[in-house]
Amino acid sequence: xxxxxxxxxxxxxxxxxxxxxxxxxxxxxxxxxxxxxxxxxxxxxxxxxxxxxxxxxxxxxxxxxxxxxxxxxxxxxxxxxxxxxxxxxxxxxxxxxxxxxxxxxxxxxxxxxxxxxxxxxxxxxxxxxxxxxxxxxxxxxxxxxxxxxxxxxxxxxxxxxxxxxxxxxxxxxxxxxxxxxxxxxxxxxxxxxxxxxxxxxxxxxxxxxxxxxxxxxxxxxxxxxxxxxxxxxxxxxxxxxxxxxxxxxxxxxxxxxxxxxxxxxxxxxxxxxxxxxxxxxxxx
Length: 284
Hints:
The chain is an alpha/beta fold. Helix content is 31%, strand content 26%. Strand 4, helix 3 (105-118) and strand 5 form a beta-alpha-beta unit. The longest helix has 17 residues, at 17-33.
């Protein structure tokens, strides 16, 4: 069944593993769902050769307005959101696949201003975050006091920058970072998106009070493990609400994105196409 009476025009920014999967889904299933792929952009155009029809290849992001997209999906790198996110919002709704970009307060402010100015929505994909709705509801009700997200995988699955890139990893399991998510995002921009989604789901805690933990574990050769721990304030008896979930996401050796996350992102794309275009930042 189509999502709307008029095809929704979708552009994809980024053609790595996740981008390739989305493009494949859009080409194969898009027409029956009321979705039309109108462009694909990648920093290295050569990566699209032989797999993306030439008519869909966009050479410059500055030209995306010529394709008249309703939704632009970013699955490239946080830098794309920081450099071009506000400009994209001038022409279309934006689905952010790299929410670690929003840890930069100037970027978040620019996106919000552009969203309201041009009456377009910023959607954020939940990715590998389990229990997003429950976290958001608890936070909105004032019942969330602590939130901690731990991401563990094999060191080959990390794409680290700055001090973390040069950090020694002497043991079989090493905690590379433990602290506010805002501090982690610039150091692990491609490995902190789940934590950034948690910070956005719980705005009363936000990037400064949601704790992120990044763990290198040599035993995790074929999976990413995400643990979410939360607690509320003391109740009448002094006890607190406490929840601890563990998500084991199958992943190819060295992959940044787990298999289940690829599927979840497609569902996020379909979900945000069904939502109204309201200014602001919305998890999807």
